[in-house]
Amino acid sequence: MYVILAYDVAVERNGRVLKTARRYLTWVQNSLLEGELSPAQLRRLQHELERAIDPQSDSVQIYVLPQASAARRVCLGVVKNEPSQFV
Amino acid sequence: MYVILAYDVAVERNGRVLKTARRYLTWVQNSLLEGELSPAQLRRLQHELERAIDPQSDSVQIYVLPQASAARRVCLGVVKNEPSQFV
What we know:
Chains A, B: This is CRISPR-associated endoribonuclease Cas2. The structure is a homodimer. Chain A is α+β, with helices and mostly antiparallel strands.
């Protein structure tokens, strides 16, 4: 599965959420990561993120695609980091 | 086409980029918008965003899916705004 993750969390939790997500996914730009995950890895990532955020005020959106090619990607401006998956 | 847009732009351009994107897409959380667009609408949005950003330092990632159902969405924490597309 290909995963796109975007987070909107309070500054004091930003570091922990980013550190957690980076153990599974590739950083693309601020608050956005991507990568190939197995269902088990996704479940573990979700579980760790749920412990890292404040569910009353933080928000994490995870988009799960069957494979990277299910989405066409358009980049405007500078590419801060290029995950290898997209052709 | 279903579009997911994430932006990472300097603070001074944040307002203009958000205002531009909101004319086409639904705000989901900070720096993230989604919505159904025709190819012509996507081209216009791209063109307007290219005029709003600094291509040397700002970054906009646009993921284009054939339809919303091409991605499964997982939300952790609070849902700041719920685009109607995802079941």
